[in-house]
Design goal:
alpha/beta, Rossmann fold, 2 domains, two-stranded antiparallel ribbon, globular, binds S-adenosylmethionine
């Protein structure tokens, strides 16, 4: 874990109280802490830093098997994030649309639910240090390895049992010195209030168990002024992932009846004072992206995307 992150870290278990974490280092290389721990002075809990990865989960409940840990899922996300860098079209247009909405800033930024990290590198390219967090240890490890080595090999099915191997090589336009990836829960972010000038949540809102809590957390860690929030989702609400009463749209009744994109606009603009200070919607676009399973099969998603500023 890079040292630049330390001043922003708080205990996710003690939220809404914010206790800054105290670092003990066992092994360090340059500005990167390889082995050590972070201790909460409030509850006494220790969060491990192992092999460079800080594990900042609020409790034991998320530490078991997580469906995004399967290796083929990792490979599919590597393709989704980086295929455009090894010659395939991949999601070049989607990445350009989202990267284009990011502001140029010297401020620290966060991508929550970052998966294998492409938007974190884009945030760093927009200026300032950038942090990604995800529940998946295998995603975070792959993103860290790519940041360190600036290249990474992976494979996907070509057809049947035949596989294609790809190598991602980060171009000079995507810096990796001031990027970091941690394992953390987007519903209890281990960052202090007002830490970030720019935050993003791309295709995460309909994957977390409590979407409103995720928005609340993104709002808490954003600066009160001079902040940008990029939010995108295909709104694939399913009751097996999220109880229907917690959906932020896609229902006929209840406080979030109707289309989620309309409800999100209203929430961001201050409805019910859930997200304060209010945001202004600066841009609303539709972005298409793809997930490949084999050479001749891609699934296409369309994500409603809002850029909010304040
Ligand atoms: C559909 S993927 C989107 C990944 C990436 N943002 C993108 O657009 O490609 C959802 C991601 O959210 C992560 N995720 C789901 N629930 C989470 C939570 N509670 N906290 C942090 N990450 C979470 C998953 O591990 C996965 O990487």
């Amino acid at each position: 874990m890079k040292e630049f992150l330390l001043p922003h870290l708080i205990c996710p278990t003690c939220l809404p109280k914010e206790h800054r974490l105290e670092l003990s280092v066992r092994r360090q290389t340059g500005d990167d802490i390889i082995d050590g721990s972070l201790r909460c002075p409030g509850c006494g809990r220790r969060f491990a830093i192992e092999d460079g990865v800080a594990i900042l989960l609020p409790g034991a409940e998320n530490e078991g098997h997580w469906r995004y840990e399967e290796s083929e899922t990792l490979n599919r996300y590597l393709w989704s994030h980086y295929a455009d860098l090894h010659g395939a079209d991949g999601n070049a247009a989607a990445i350009a649309a989202w990267a284009g909405a990011l502001g140029r800033t010297g401020d620290i930024s966060l991508d929550a639910g970052c998966s294998v990290g492409r938007i974190v590198f884009q945030l760093a390219a927009a200026g300032g240090p950038a942090v990604g967090c995800d529940l998946s240890l295998s995603f975070v490890k792959a993103a860290r390895r790519l940041a360190r080595d600036r290249r990474l090999k992976y494979s996907l099915p070509l057809e049947g049992n035949l596989r294609e191997t790809f190598e991602i090589v980060l171009p000079e336009t995507l810096p990796s010195d001031h990027v970091e990836f941690v394992v953390a829960d987007a519903l209890r972010l281990p960052f202090a209030k007002g830490s970030f000038g720019q935050v993003s949540s791309l295709n995460v809102l309909d994957r977390v168990s409590y979407p409103l809590a995720h928005l609340y957390e993104m709002n808490r860690v954003s600066r009160e002024r001079d902040a940008r929030f990029l939010l995108a989702s295909p709104f694939s609400w399913t009751s097996s992932d999220i109880p229907e009463e917690r959906w932020l749209g896609g229902t006929a009744t209840g406080p979030y009846a109707g289309r989620a994109v309309d409800n999100l606009r209203a929430l961001l603009e201050g409805k019910g004072k859930v997200l304060a200070p209010p945001w202004r919607i600066a841009e609303a676009i539709s972005v298409q992206w793809h997930m490949r399973s084999h050479r001749n099969h891609c699934e296409t998603f369309t994500s409603d995307t809002l850029l909010a500023v304040r």
